[in-house]
């Protein structure tokens, strides 16, 4: 994976976890916060950390913010600062600005001032938890659109020891098996002759409702 330069503005819980994960994955991460203590705490898990008020154009320029590939605005409760920061970043020519929204209205304004991707952590996490509860056989979940997703499903016992061709999942359930997770390994694009074992997980792509039907056919 190519190394990119990220800046994370606001080192609260959300910003910290984004920054830490990117840094662990070998990316270059600059942490920015107006609070000196937050910056000191972050020094262990970012490439650099600086104290700056992101609502000041001068401070952003001094950092050279327009050279970053992607800037994440993780300012929490101060909605006005988050909106002003996103708008300044776009004015300064930052290509990709990702911003965290507290709610729908906040998100709409962030979109107006040019945010390229808006994240609603509470809403998204809530949906994720509900989805997990609704499908006990569902382990991992990636939302592709409102209707479609990729999900990791435990196979119903009665389907074990049969081949994908025999199971005819695509025709029966309108979903495709794109991979099989077997003992920690992953078999990509399994051939129709592959026999499914009872401990296997199927990685499926399709409409959420179709995948849910498959996941709930019972053991
Ligand atoms: P979370 O809910 O993710 O913990 P917080 O609201 O606790 O979010 O944290 C947001 C962080 O953003 C705080 O550390 C705060 O100091 C920082 N912050 C707020 N306004 C600015 C600003 N204008 N410039 C830089 N950092 C800011």
If you had to describe this structure to a student in words, what would you say it looks like?
The mean pLDDT is 92. The chain is α/β, with parallel strands linked by helices. It folds into 2 domains: 5-122, Rossmann fold, CATH 3.40.50.720; 135-215, Alpha-Beta Plaits (2-Layer Sandwich). It is elongated, with a radius of gyration of 22 Å. The longest helix is centred in the middle third of the chain and has 14 residues, at 121-134. The chain is built from 9 helices and 13 strands. It starts with a strand and ends with a helix. The chain has a 6-stranded parallel β-sheet, sandwiched between helices. It has a 5-stranded antiparallel β-sheet with strand order 7-8-13-10-11. Strands 9-12 form a two-stranded antiparallel sheet.
Label this structure with key terms.
single chain, 219 residues, alpha/beta, Rossmann fold, Alpha-Beta Plaits, 2 domains, six-stranded parallel β-sheet, five-stranded antiparallel β-sheet, 9 helices, 13 strands, 28% strand, binds adenosine-5'-diphosphate
């Amino acid at each position: 994976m190519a190394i990119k330069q990220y800046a994370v503005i606001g080192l609260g819980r959300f910003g910290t976890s984004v920054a830490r994960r990117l840094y662990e994955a070998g990316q270059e991460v600059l942490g920015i916060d107006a609070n000196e203590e937050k910056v000191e705490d972050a020094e262990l898990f970012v490439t650099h950390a600086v104290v700056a008020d992101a609502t000041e154009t001068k401070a952003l320029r001094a950092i050279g913010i327009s050279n970053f590939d992607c800037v994440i605005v993780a300012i929490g409760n101060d909605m006005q600062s988050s909106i002003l920061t996103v708008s300044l970043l776009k004015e300064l020519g930052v290509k990709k600005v990702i911003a965290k929204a507290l709610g729908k209205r906040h998100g709409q304004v962030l979109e107006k001032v040019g945010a390229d991707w808006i994240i609603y952590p509470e809403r998204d996490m809530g949906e994720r938890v509900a989805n997990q509860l609704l499908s006990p056989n569902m382990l991992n979940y990636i939302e592709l659109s409102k209707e479609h997703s990729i999900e990791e499903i435990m196979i119903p016992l009665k389907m074990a020891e049969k081949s994908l061709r025999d199971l005819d999942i695509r025709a029966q359930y309108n979903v495709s098996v794109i991979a099989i997770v077997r003992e920690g390994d992953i078999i990509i694009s399994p051939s129709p002759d592959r026999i499914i074992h009872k401990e296997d997980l199927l990685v499926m792509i399709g409409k959420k409702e179709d995948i849910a039907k498959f996941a709930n056919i019972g053991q």
